Amino acid sequence: MTRSAVANIDVAAVRHNLTVVRHLSPHSKVLAVIKANGYGHGIVRIARALSGADGFGVAHVEEALTLRAAGVDIPIVVLQGFSDPQELQTMVEHRLQTVVHLADHVDMLESVSLASPLIVWLKINTGMHRLGFALEQAKAAWLRLRACRNVLDIRLMTHFANADVPADASTLQQIQDFEQVTHDLPGERSVANSAGVLLWPQSRLDWVRPGVMLYGISPVAGTSAAALGLRPAMTLTGRVIAVNAVQRGGRVGYGGDWVASVDTVVAVVGMGYGDGYPRHARNGTPVLVNGELRPLVGRVSMDMLCVDLGPTPSARAGDAAVAWGVGLPVETVAECASTIPYELVCKVTPRVQIVEHGHGQG
Fold first, then answer.
1. 212 and 288 Cβ atoms separated by less than 8 Å
2. Of the candidates 111, 161, 262, 342, which lies 20 to 30 Å from 308 by C-alpha distance?
3. Which residue from 97, 19, 22, 20 is spatially nearest to 58, judged by alpha carbons?
4. What is d(CA 37, CA 7) in angstroms, rounded to the nearest whole number?
5. pTM for the full predicted model
6. For 90, phi and psi rounded to 5 degrees?
7. How far apart are the first and last CA of the chain?
8. Which helix (H) or strand (E) holds 83?
């Protein structure tokens, strides 16, 4: 039997979303962030779709090596940096660039013997308080890197903590602090993530680092991806495998949590948390069945979920049901599951069939 759950990946949408980034940041290079298996869309697939980017950002060396093994030849930046001298050697061998975000990184670069020097990205902590040198330590780190024989070039970066909130003054403070601490340090600069690209024009410096917007997902609460000119790259669908009449008072699913208030018809869709659909999606979460938004009812199980079609059946076995994607934004489903869309697309499981389309389209 053909697997019910299918993730349709629209590579034309990915390319379109890159054009949106280019339009908003015409004077910036684009470091496309494709970590976490391309946000669940397939890291090699997304790299090929985004071949027009100026570079790729990945979380760790293993992701970078996957890209190199697939023939991806453009610059790759390892955003979490390196953990030991052997990883530095690997970076040189495969022409990778690295973020430097703590003193141990500088120590290793000064002590190791490399066949050729690396481009490094000095990360400065301007308020995220996760990775990066403190403001008062940044210049000293830069001076050490400039003097290091294993460093070819130094680029400067920071990371926003709350750029997706337009009224949050802390983002402007981060920009100002970054500008102040780097104003006399040569090197290309990078500040903007997806929210920065969309909301903070002053953060679009030499490089921008879009991630989630490339997949057609809005990083801005209350603003849809469509309103931002973005197109969803993933449409997750399942097949209706049964349609059942449920009388008033009938209970649906494990625990009987949902009780029919009137006679109705319930469709059973072959998709569940074993495919990556959120188990904690609440009753009423929309599912798109034959172009009509219908509410999820009962608990999501491993392989199935149930949808209330109302008193008149609008679907039959074999029909498609969209969990998220075209016609139903993943942001909407994430809100109903008390999570974020990043988590949903990243958690699509290997048993879901991937269908790629959009080749030759812009």
1. no
2. 342
3. 97
4. 14
5. 0.95
6. -65, -40
7. 34
8. none
